Amino acid sequence: MNEPTPGTSTLSGADRVVLAGLRAGDEATFAALVHQWSPAMLRLARQFVSTGQSAQDAVQDAWLGMLNGLDRFDGRASLRTWTFSILVNRAKSRGVRDGRTVVDPPAEDDGYDLPTVDPERFQGPDGRYPDGWTPAGVPQPWHQPEKRAVAGDTLSLVEQTLDRLPARQRLVVTLRDVQGFDADEVCTLLEISAADQRRLLHRGRAALRTALEEYYRA
Amino acid sequence: MTTMHGLTCREIVELVTDYLDGDLDADTTAALEAHLAVCPGCARYLDQIRETIATLGEISSDTLSAEVQSGLLQAFDAFRRPTSTEPAGIDRRPGRPPAAQTQD
Q1: Is B7 in a helix, a strand, or coil?
Q2: In this structure, are residues B34 and A10 in contact, taking their beta carbons and an 8 Å threshold?
Q3: Quick check: B20 contacting A, CB < 8 Å?
Q4: ipTM for this prediction
Q5: Are residues A142 and B81, on separate chains, in Cβ contact within 8 Å?
Q6: Which pLDDT does position B3 carry in this prediction?
Q7: How far, in Å, CA of A68 to CA of A1, rounded?
Q8: A122 in helix, strand or coil?
Q9: Nearest to A44 by CA among A33, A57, A59
Q10: Measured between CB atoms, does A210 come within 8 Å of chain B?
């Protein structure tokens, strides 16, 4: 194993500063990092474990693991990806101990390349505009002046729908759209291919849009 | 509203994710954007996907309990003690009561 260097050429400038602060024992640097990343870590851990307390424990484990591994961090991944990878490992282990089935097997995504929009919403080959929207199927405007949505309602609805998505879709959508991670980072964290990441994100988002559409139509 | 510049509405809705990530090649991107320019249904679909993403971004998360946070800072201070030549390993969590697991 190579001697780890404090800042390799692939590490971002920001990461190098943070890493130097951590290695120098600067508590403020560590406190800021904990404050900044823990909410996302909790949300991610919660997808693998059974209780909120268990998620707190997993996040605590991850931070301690990160501190223990700091001197061996080689900077090939970003500090965040590395830390979150530790978290995923800890959360998965806890999930198994909690007796929770961690992540559904790929079979869950049997809708592999199935359409994400109901095919009935498009015209058939005999239609006036084949493969175009039907009049009944075309997306309707959501924001009508006479039907003002309550912002809190749509947020709750999205949260609830997200919670009911198949596990892998929920994980990808959470990381990408709730937490703002990029595609590469998600693939690294979840150990999935770019194609899988894209498909899971695509299906998850489509399902969420449909849920909102039904809300607005009611 | 259909085979405009080679892409149908049925195809467009399956391309939106790649489009938003910038993963479509130049020709497909051009074809998609040309379709959106003349197809209000698909333009609306894409906007609705964007709005869905924006709403997801507003979901807030829990924070670590104050107890855990202060425990972590204590662990950090012990770990990075300036007087030690080698960092001490962490094998216990300060302030954490043994065994007790509370329900969610």
Answers
A1: strand
A2: no
A3: no
A4: 0.84
A5: no
A6: 45
A7: 17
A8: strand
A9: A59
A10: no
Tens digit of each residue's pLDDT (9 = 90 or more) over B31-53? 999 999 999 999 999 999 999 99
pLDDT tops 60 at residue B17:
yes
Q: Give the closest-approach CA distance of B39 to chain A in angstroms.
A: 9
B14 vs B64: CA distance, rounded Å: 39
Query: How many whole angstroms separate alpha carbon B41 and alpha carbon B28?
Result: 19
- Polymer length of chain B: 104
- Using a CB-CB cut-off of 8 Å, the residues of chain B touching A138 are 40-41, 44
Which residue(s) pair with A133 in the sheet? A122
Q: Which two tokens stand for residue B81?
A: 């003690």
Contacts of A158 in chain B (CB under 8 A): 52, 55-56, 59
CA dist A133 and A137 (Å) reads 6
What is the per-residue pLDDT for A18? Answer: 95
What's the distance, CA A152 to chain centroid?
22
Residue A146: predicted pLDDT: 62
Residue A201: which of A118, A116, A138, A117 has the closest Cα? A116
Burial of A160 (0-12, 13-18, 19+ CB in 10 A): exposed
Give me A66's structure tokens. 């990160």
Residues 93-132 of A with CB under 8 A from B: 115-117, 119, 122-123, 129-132
- Cβ contact (<8 Å) for B61 and A30? no
- Distance (Å) from the C-alpha of residue B76 to the closest C-alpha of chain A? 7
- B4 — phi, psi (to 5°)? -90, 120
Q: Which two tokens stand for residue B73?
A: 């800072």
Mean pLDDT of the A173-200 span? 95
Distances (CA, A) of A147 to A139, A208, A217, A218: 16, 20, 10, 10
pLDDT value of residue A2: 47
